[in-house]
Write a structure and sequence with these properties.
homodimer, elongated
Chain lengths: 167, 167
């Protein structure tokens, strides 16, 4: 957005800005996941990350659909939050000497990513409804449901196996 | 952590590193909240942020207690994730021209912060239990419960009032 102008005047502007932010975030996650897949040792965890990579590509397509439904061209704006979350994931995983402990660290990083997406999609859905765009809210809800399901799967995998192997 | 050494060899090391990360994050939130309070217009939202500032100071004290229970001196390590989330909050709020829309943006930013804390405390509690430290898990759970309650209060305030005023 502008450095010297205040570009967000309405809730609609804020909704579009937030769409652009999560569009950048989803594309950044697509770039980051192959590294996480490469670092994971547990086959179920690797498979979970691979499934989520495929899902994330669909999330990008859904966002492009919402942009169009809302009369906007898809556009990404910088999202320092996801950049920070991914940077932290890289730093921590680079510091772990043991591959079972690394799996536990990778799950924690992936859940930080999921929670960022959960909060942003939750907000976008509330704003879409307030703006009378239940059609956009419905599409965004599909992605939110998948992000929450991924987070629960990661919790279950961590608590049933990965943390025990790491301890 | 070390640039040329892998300092995290065990799940216990990872637990302590994550404690140091969230300790930095909580202290960063204490510095950021007064700015958010100053920008908020709705009196209930301002009051909500003020209450959360007081709670966050208790969260820092609880973390110091957990460090000591675990035989560690309280120490903060850089947390690029929270830095990115706060940077994004500052950038977006600086771009909003209307005070009702700004309140909606501030709630969204606060919920991004809450979700970061929710994921980190959730992970810390799972790791503490795996390490046989139910005593640490119990203290961390008190904070997690408060973070979740704050997130729900913010959702409720956004959906019942703030988003409608912004639209």
């Amino acid at each position: 957005m502008g450095l010297f102008t205040k570009d967000i005047a309405t809730l609609d502007d804020l909704f579009v800005h937030q769409l652009q932010d999560i569009y950048y975030a989803e594309k950044t996650i697509i770039k980051a996941l192959p590294t996480m897949i490469g670092k994971a040792t547990d086959p179920q965890l690797r498979q979970g990350f691979e499934t989520h990579l495929a899902e994330t590509k669909v999330h990008v397509e859904r966002l492009e659909r919402v942009f169009k439904m809302h009369g906007q061209s898809p556009k990404a704006v910088n999202c320092p939050a996801i950049d920070g979350i991914i940077k932290e994931a890289d730093e921590v995983s680079g510091d772990v000497a043991n591959k079972e402990v690394l799996d536990a660290a990778l799950i924690a990083s992936a859940q930080a990513v999921e929670h960022y997406e959960i909060t942003r999609y939750g907000t976008l859905i509330a704003w879409a409804k307030q703006l009378g765009r239940n059609d956009c809210a419905t599409v965004l809800q599909e992605t939110l449901d998948e992000e929450k399901a991924t987070d629960h799967k990661l919790t279950s995998m961590a608590e049933s196996k990965i943390n025990r192997k790491a301890a």
